[in-house]
Specification:
By secondary structure, the protein is an alpha/beta fold. It contains 35 helices and 22 strands. The strands form 4 sheets. An 8-stranded mixed beta barrel has the order 13-14-16-17-18-19-20-21, surrounded by 5 helices. Strand 11, helix 22 and strand 12 form a beta-alpha-beta unit. Helix 3 packs parallel to helix 6 and helix 26 runs parallel beside helix 28. It is elongated and about 135 Å long.
Length: 953
């Protein structure tokens, strides 16, 4: 009954008026009794302190928000972003109705300043959110991203394809040697090299603009100069080819490719010019203007407003103290008059309230309900009271804001890069954005109110709770990759992510879907590159070894054979006719072998002129017959070059897989042994491995003597170490000494590593040699420690050593059981080994660094993928390949390459060492380029090991 009496404003107003009259009488009595004591309490001081404390909290949150915003603009990490969101939430919680009421009580300029501060806080939050939105996508932050992705990258790929077509046409033409123009072939190869270097300088220019070096402007100018040099060389080669084409000396394919390359070069230059203009301007990124021109001024205004409010608080406290006692007497007189006027005020207020407040509010409530349901309703407010008019204006403004936000949300969904599909718990689609329309080649109107399974099969199970489905499959929140069909089109590979929300006690599901067909194809291509030989496209040695591992483990009970094929006269043809001819021979031999290969068998290139063939389900006789067929095919092949005919031939070793073979290396070694026996018996032979072949092959290597000599040298300490200093390029102070290996053979002559290392690698002795070097080096370092010298030594490791999982444990054991500092050891591996065994190399190098040792990458720059993999390798130093350093002063191209290597190394925080420094001019040039350390005969020749005390002296 009491609730029914108070269910309207009118009834509540009558009740409030009655209570007000009663309260007035009570107030009158109370003030007469307790007036003086009331005004003596520090209530007003407490209110001021409470408001001042709230102001300090706002200041603190603003300061933290400002700091996090600037940090996120630099770091772009989830931690700083979450901090921003946390401070934004805290700031919103501080600006409550209670806070505003607190300042309303204070009134005056404090209320105005607080309202200004509140508006500034709102503007700051809006601008910070806009900044986060821009920072979340590279395309929003960097204007050049679409140009790089949609123009430069496709133009580079097309130019490279056309150039490769022209080069391939030259290689095809070699079947008729009289039609080959070797000058054109040379120019095309030079053109490919200069084009690759130009692409490298463009990538360095882009990386430098982003700021991975200390002085991007200087580095960018160098990159532009280097790029101009390569561009001029490319134009020079293209002009030469045009002149040759004018004389009809090019093939049809070369002429067509040349025309395409000219157009592509011009288009690439134009696209790069746009990138250059943007990167050299102040507007090369979009987040800086927001920070400088919008966010920073807003924070400055907020700080000024806060300072002014603090000053006003101090002034207010002083004024309140002075006026407190004077207000006491005035308040007592006011209470008398208030009780008399209260009744009149209540009556007037009631009628004013009825016509000026309650009825307009009711009209506005009806209008809001109508707008929420999508209907039009114009509120009838007859009062001309300003507040009522403002209420109408506020309602109109609210309608516009709601409609604008709805349009903004729809715009965001439509412009999202991912397809976004929303459906209900019955699987019916209720939203379908523009990106989804493009993915499925249909309109949203055709998709809405249809089942999700019509577009993404098996995503939703009919007549089952989707909540149960996601719990059963574990799909919600995880990424699913699947192939999705398009209507009347080719299917695509999609990445799908699901999320669930609850609204009005109903579940709704959102699917984020992206077309990742290109990414999947790229990964497949990378896998093919890792498994295939670059020249013949056959499986490479790594793939063969993995395949043999699986073969030995999984095909127990099956009869398989391994053929080890070595070309007989290939070295003679390669050395006399050149490497291009040698490559052509390998390609043609590959084609001959593939023609005879069965579908179930596997052909691989082990390297150089060596091939391997795996025959499945064959016995000894079948293997011999197949091997003789392959031998005869190669024997009948003749390579014709400039009118000369060269017979190649081959020797083939056969090893049958038997139950006693448990390791891949054992099967491969048997086939290799058999191939050597075939060669020693006059070449162009086929030999099946037998148990007594080991003795025959051992006799072959006994002539060289290296296997026995190496083993005895390890046993009898016939190895000895020499060291060569690595010095600072400016101060000439010795930073470290590289440990080099020598061997005293039986005749007391010194053997260099290039004499015995190949044999050691072939027979798997490198891990033993490397362990000897590591142990002896650590022993010498301990001697240095006894003499009070802090020495550093650099040790070279082989691929077999870092592929051996026990190597790290051996090094750890030596360090733990000695008194040396791990920092005094630097371990070097070559770039070729690191890239060939990338995952193993990364794991091994990280293990060394976890022990406290330092790491170095030797022969840096010798491979084509140097820059690509450098950022992935955990190394402290890179040793620039000596082929670039030796002719540094004579070859401008080598100078540009060394400068580029230095800049890339600096970008990833790695120090540089230059090898083969033989004179002071080269030393000074390297120092001017900023190379950190140098090594070579100018710094010191290799010398037998002496203590670091004597070396330093």
């Amino acid at each position: 009954m009491a609730v029914a009496l108070l269910n309207s404003l009118r009834k509540r107003f009558v009740l409030a008026a009655t209570l007000l009259l009663l309260l007035s009488i009570a107030i009158f009595s109370y003030i007469n009794l307790h007036l003086l004591r009331e005004y003596d309490t520090p209530t007003h001081v407490h209110r001021n302190q409470e408001a001042f404390h709230t102001l300090e909290l706002i200041r603190d949150n603003l300061r933290r928000l400002e700091s996090s915003t600037y940090q996120h603009a630099v770091l772009l990490d989830d931690t700083t972003r979450s901090q921003i969101e946390k401070h934004l939430g805290s700031l919103s919680k501080l600006h409550t109705q209670e806070t505003e009421t607190m300042f309303v009580r204070l009134g005056g300029t404090l209320l105005e300043s607080y309202q200004k501060l509140h508006r500034l806080d709102g503007d700051i939050q809006q601008e910070v959110k806009a900044l986060i939105f821009i920072l979340s996508k590279p395309d929003r932050r960097f204007p050049t991203a679409p140009i790089l992705r949609e123009e430069l990258s496709p133009l580079n790929e097309r130019f490279t394809q056309e150039l490769q077509l022209a080069i391939s046409d030259t290689q095809t033409a070699r079947e008729n040697p009289l039609s080959v123009n070797y000058d054109v072939d040379s120019k095309l190869l030079s053109l490919r090299y200069y084009w690759m270097q130009q692409i490298s300088t463009v990538r360095s220019f882009i990386a430098n603009r982003i700021g991975i070096v200390n002085s991007p402007e200087i580095s960018m100018r160098r990159n532009l100069n280097d790029r101009a040099l390569y561009s001029a060389l490319i134009d020079e080669n293209l002009d030469w080819l045009q002149r040759v084409d004018a004389s009809n000396a090019l093939t049809i394919q070369q002429s067509l490719s040349l025309a395409q390359m000219l157009d592509l070069k011009k288009a690439y230059d134009n696209a790069f010019e746009k990138v250059r203009e943007i990167y050299l301007s102040d507007n090369w990124r979009k987040d800086y203007p927001i920070l400088r021109e919008r966010i920073q001024p807003l924070f400055s205004q907020a700080w000024n407003t806060l300072d002014a409010m603090e000053s006003e608080f101090q002034s207010l406290n002083s004024r309140q103290q002075l006026s407190l006692y004077g207000a006491t007497n005035q308040l007592q007189d006011f209470i008398w008059m208030f009780n008399i006027a209260a009744l009149l005020v209540v009556l007037i207020a009631y009628f004013s309230f009825e016509y000026l407040l309650r009825r307009p509010i009711k009209q506005m409530a009806l209008a809001m309900k109508a707008h929420a349901s999508g209907a039009d309703f114009v509120p009838e407010i007859r009062s001309n009271l300003q507040e009522n008019q403002e209420l109408v204006l506020a309602f109109e403004h609210m309608k516009k804001e709601v409609d604008a936000r709805q349009r903004k949300l729809e715009s965001i969904l439509d412009n999202a890069a991912e397809g976004i599909i929303t459906f209900d718990s019955e699987g019916m689609i209720i939203n379908f954005n523009k990106a989804a329309e493009e993915l499925f080649r249909t309109n949203a109107s055709n998709a809405i109110k249809r089942g999700i399974n019509e577009f993404i099969p098996d995503l939703f199970v009919e007549q089952r709770s989707f909540v149960f489905f996601e719990r059963e499959t574990g799909l919600s929140g995880d990424e699913l990759v699947m192939e999705i069909p398009r209507r009347n089109s080719i299917p695509f590979i999609a990445s799908i992510k699901l999320s669930r929300t609850s609204l009005d006690e109903r579940y709704y599901y959102t699917v984020l879907i992206s077309d990742i067909t290109e990414q999947v194809e790229m990964l497949n291509n990378l896998k093919r590159v890792a498994e295939r030989d670059s020249l013949t496209a056959l499986y490479n040695r790594k793939y063969l070894l993995d395949y043999l591992d699986e073969l030995i483990e999984s095909r127990t009970g099956h009869s398989d054979a391994l053929l080890y094929l070595d070309l007989d006269n290939f070295k003679f043809a390669n050395d006399t006719l050149g490497h291009l001819a040698g490559d052509q021979i390998i390609i043609e031999v590959t084609s001959l072998l593939q023609q005879r290969l069965r579908d179930q068998d596997l052909l691989a290139r082990l390297g150089g002129d060596e091939f391997a063939i795996i025959l499945h389900d064959v016995n000894e006789q079948d293997a011999m017959e197949a091997a003789n067929d392959y031998r005869k095919t190669i024997s009948d092949y003749h390579y014709v070059h400039t009118g000369k005919t060269i017979d190649i031939g081959c020797s083939i070793g056969i090893a049958l897989k038997s139950p006693d073979i448990i390791r891949t290396e054992e099967l491969l070694a048997k086939a290799d042994y058999a191939c050597h026996v075939a060669k020693t018996r006059g070449r162009n032979q086929v030999h099946l491995y037998h148990l007594d072949d080991k003795r025959e092959v051992a006799a072959i290597y006994a002539d060289m003597g290296w296997t026995r000599i190496i083993k005895r040298a390890i046993e009898n300490d016939r190895f000895f170490l020499v060291t060569q200093p690595i010095v600072d390029s400016r101060s000439q102070k010795v930073m470290a000494r590289e440990v080099l290996l020598r061997l005293n053979d039986q005749n007391s002559t010194i053997a260099m590593p290039n004499g015995f290392i190949p044999a050691a690698e072939r027979f798997g002795l490198m891990p033993d040699i490397d362990r000897w070097v590591i142990g002896r080096t650590i022993g010498y370092i301990q001697e240095d420690i006894i003499q009070g010298v802090d020495s550093v030594y650099s040790i070279n490791l082989s691929a077999a050593t870092f592929n051996d999982t026990s190597t790290l444990e051996y090094i750890r054991y030596l360090i733990e059981h000695s008194r040396i500092k791990p920092h005094s050891l630097i371990f070097e591996i070559t770039e070729t080994m690191a890239i060939t065994h990338l995952n193993k190399a990364i794991e091994f190098l990280e293990g060394l660094r976890s022990l406290g040792c330092r790491t170095a990458l030797d022969d840096f720059g010798s491979g084509h993928a140097s820059y690509l993999y450098l950022k992935d390798l955990p190394v402290d130093y890179v040793k620039i390949d000596g082929s670039f350093v030796r002719d540094l002063l004579k070859e401008p191209l080598h100078l540009a390459m060394v400068r580029s290597m230095k800049e890339v190394a600096d970008a990833v925080g790695i120090q540089t060492i230059a090898e083969y420094v033989e004179d002071i001019e080269t030393k000074e040039m390297l120092a001017s380029l900023g190379v950190d350390y140098i090594q070579g005969y100018y710094c010191g020749r290799p010398e037998p090991w002496k203590s670091s005390a004597s070396n330093s002296g």
